[in-house]
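okkk here we go again. third time trying to get the NAP bound version out, last two times i messed up the smiles copy paste (missing a bracket lol). double checked this time i swear
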Amino acid sequence: MAAARPDLKIGVVGATGMVGKAFMSILEERAFPLAELRPFASDNSLGKKIPLRGREWAVQTLKPGCFDGLDLVFFSSGDEISAEWAPRAVKAGAFAVDNSAAFRMDASIALVVPEVNGHLLKPGMKPAIIANPNCSTIQLVVALKPLERFGLEEVRVSSYQAVSGGGQAAHDELIDQVKDHENPSPSVKVFPHPILFNVIPQIGSFNDDGFCSEEVKIMKETRKILGAPELKVSAFTVRVPALNSHSEAVWVTLGQDVGREQVLQALHEGAGLVVQDDPKSSVYPLPRQVSGLDPVHVGRVHRDPENPRLWLMWVVSDNIRKGAALNGLQIAERIFDIRTGP
Ligand SMILES: NC(=O)c1ccc[n+]([C@@H]2O[C@H](COP(=O)([O-])OP(=O)(O)OC[C@H]3O[C@@H](n4cnc5c(N)ncnc54)[C@H](OP(=O)(O)O)[C@@H]3O)[C@@H](O)[C@H]2O)c1
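finally!!
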């Protein structure tokens, strides 16, 4: 009989942020074998205590040698910190699961959504950086994967993204504006405009072609994860005043003319996917309901009347969980051959 794997020593960089806190909750929910938690954050959080598994773990700051002895470090503190510290984690002998954009498009680094391209991760592999995709990309590829069998020709997506995608400060900015909702010019720090009673067609900075950085991430990452460099993908991303869970209207052109029952059956069989599709009874996924849930939800699946191969669907997912922390933990489960989830 194979020896049981010893419990793991895990570091979390950005442990006090939105994604870091979700990572802790998921570790608590799942029976992930944990021997040590080493939480890291900025100087502001030094010494804060993170309760987990009946113990309190003191927050540290990043310094040389801080990853020594760890098996896995989950990074969730932004691109610059990951670019500098993820390679150091690997040098120290740990796997670095990186939630930032720093390494996603590096051809030598795996960009993984376990339900879609988890085969890239093998138990016994050597410590490496594994990139966690952008939250909007993750839910899109989970919904597209089961349709691959019909051929994917073209994907267009328009997103309706919750404020939590911008981190704790963005979440707090909407709450503050709600409390002060009669103020015609509320103060803005995170978003370029007030987000309450508004929608903002900008997530990130713009390039010379008129695309913002979130849109470029979705287009490039989707092709890389699906292993389809020629796939046509076009994205338009919008911030909306939902607190948590991103929604996407998706247009997908299939290679074959198939019936609605076949499309629905494929989606029902999709890993990590739940179909909620009874629009005449007003049943479809909603960000308020999907918030806190693990699976990606899909509904409003219907065919374009002018193009029998063009399908429309509505995809909603908790951007902090499947869009970030949960996907990272599922990557860790593959690497270490651990199964803790449903
Ligand atoms: N929110 C999402 O839906 C989402 C989804 C996918 C990917 N991501 C990515 O995940 C990362 C974190 O996002 P978030 O939403 O959790 O942001 P957040 O709520 O703003 O949290 C940022 C975290 O980074 C820590 N931090 C800041 N400076 C640091 C330093 N010098 N050393 C170590 N830690 C430091 C912060 O610590 P303090 O509390 O001490 O300041 C905090 O724990 C970003 O790269 C983001 O793009 C986010």
